[in-house]
Design goal:
402 residues, nine-stranded mixed sheet, seven-stranded parallel sheet, 18 strands, binds NADPH dihydro-nicotinamide-adenine-dinucleotide phosphate
Length: 402
């Protein structure tokens, strides 16, 4: 029995709160708070398994968070607002004695840069107060780290090569939209790509390395090498890894729109003067684009996200592919959400359940791959994200098989 505060009532928040409400024996009291209370009320009105309370909060302000948390007294905060709010929410957790979980690492508003260093720096404070913070418990980051930990525990003595492959073969019917918060999504894609090889990070121009990858039940899709935050923690936590990369699919239509928007300056985060006030072009663009939750109703097709791994077991080469496919329509049927929000929100709920049932609970700040993957892997399928594996079959990357 635990009390949880969920912050953020967007695409992911909708999934997390609905999934948590069905686990009444674990999450016995739920408060959903966000910047716009009407969005919380709308989600809460669609939930019948238990009462979900709602509140308005600006999570950029620690005192506001503290007074809300002192009043409700949650055991855990699930942060599914934006990465900008990670540190303020962690500060409020420390001051109120509350555990913490999120799905995206901190980034400062004025620099498009995401790194774990700011949140890892909270380790001692969380450990001293006997609190736990679980970072990056969505799908990627999140399940991809748990898949890798599971592979290492059951199928490998050492992991040499890791490629995380992320495909969205869905169609939302809009000319251009992003599947999670547009500002965060565009900041991620327009920055330089980066991967880990032989002990160092290699930087590449944005979207300059790409190749077709064959996804289960979908077929080949052009996939682009990006920097993604779980690479940073996996390189730290998987001993001896030689190379770690992340690939994501984009349609030609998406790339064409993004290129034009970039060329005319609409993706910039530098403030400009507009009719007597300062505006940030990317924030203005976000206001024009559909919200991630608005894409859900008529979204067709599916996502496929997994880990392709090569390493050694008992002195022999081994390849391993573990993945999940998620249909957008199934997410709609289950929680009136779309597949990308769903694949993020379901693991956040299950990570919270792991913490609140004591299966994953120790003081400090951790990434998901630092815990025993087995209880999570055992349960994730029944919540809507079943996983599949292939052992010792050819994978997408030719150098795995040289
Ligand atoms: P949305 O834009 O749909 O939702 C964000 C929500 O946060 C909105 O309800 C917004 O309120 C609220 N919010 C923003 N600022 C504040 C604030 N200062 N105080 C309180 N609430 C605030 O985004 P998503 O739901 O798609 O994404 C949520 C998070 O999930 C993001 O951090 C994203 O990076 C992460 N994510 C992680 C993935 C993973 O696999 N690990 C994949 C996809 C997303 P308002 O409605 O008023 O603007």
């Amino acid at each position: 029995m635990s009390k949880i505060l969920i912050i953020g009532a967007g695409g992911v928040g909708n999934v997390v709160v609905k999934k948590c409400a069905r686990e009444k024996q674990v999450f016995s009291e739920i408060l959903l708070a966000s910047r716009t209370k009407s969005k919380c009320d709308k989600i809460a009105s669609e939930i019948h398994e238990q009462e979900v309370k709602t509140a308005q909060v600006d999570a950029d302000h620690v005192p506001e968070l503290i007074s809300l948390m002192r009043e409700f007294r949650p055991d855990l905060v699930i942060n599914v607002a934006l990465p900008y709010q990670d540190l303020t929410i962690m500060d409020a957790c420390l001051q109120t004695g509350t555990h913490y979980l999120d799905t995206a690492n901190y980034e400062p508003r004025d620099v498009a840069k995401f790194e774990y260093k700011w949140q890892w720096a909270y380790y001692d404070k969380f450990e001293k107060t006997g609190l736990m913070a679980l970072l990056g418990c969505g799908f990627d980051p999140g399940v991809t780290g748990i898949y890798t930990a599971y592979a290492l525990k059951h199928h490998f003595d050492t992991i040499d090569y890791l490629d995380i492959v992320d495909c969205n073969a869905g169609d939302h019917g809009k000319a251009f939209a992003t599947n999670f918060n547009p500002e965060i999504n565009i900041r991620e894609i327009t920055q330089k790509g980066k991967y880990w090889e032989n002990g160092k990070w290699i930087e590449i121009d944005p979207m300059s390395v790409h190749m077709p990858i064959d996804y289960p039940n979908i077929g080949p899709k052009e996939s682009y090498l990006l920097y993604h935050e779980e690479l940073e923690s996996l390189v730290k936590n998987i001993p001896g890894i030689k190379r770690a990369r992340f690939w994501m699919t984009f349609s030609q239509n998406y790339i064409n729109h993004l290129t034009v928007l970039q060329n005319v300056g609409m993706t910039s985060i530098e403030p400009i003067d507009f009719q007597g006030q300062k505006i940030i072009p990317l924030e203005f663009l976000k206001a024009l684009l559909p919200e991630p939750s608005d894409l859900a109703e008529n979204y067709t097709g599916e996502t496929s996200i997994g880990c392709q791994i090569k390493g050694k077991k008992d002195g022999e080469d081994r390849t391993y592919y573990v993945w999940n496919n998620c249909k957008h329509q199934d997410a709609w049927k289950d929680v009136r959400g779309q597949g990308v929000s769903y694949t993020t929100g379901v693991p956040a709920m299950l990570g919270a359940k792991m913490m609140m049932t004591g299966q994953w609970m120790k003081p400090g700040v951790f990434n998901v791959e630092e815990f025993d993957p087995d209880p999570f892997m055992k349960e994730i399928g029944k919540y809507g994200l079943p996983w599949f594996e292939r052992i010792d079959v050819p994978l997408a990357f030719r150098d795995y098989h040289d």
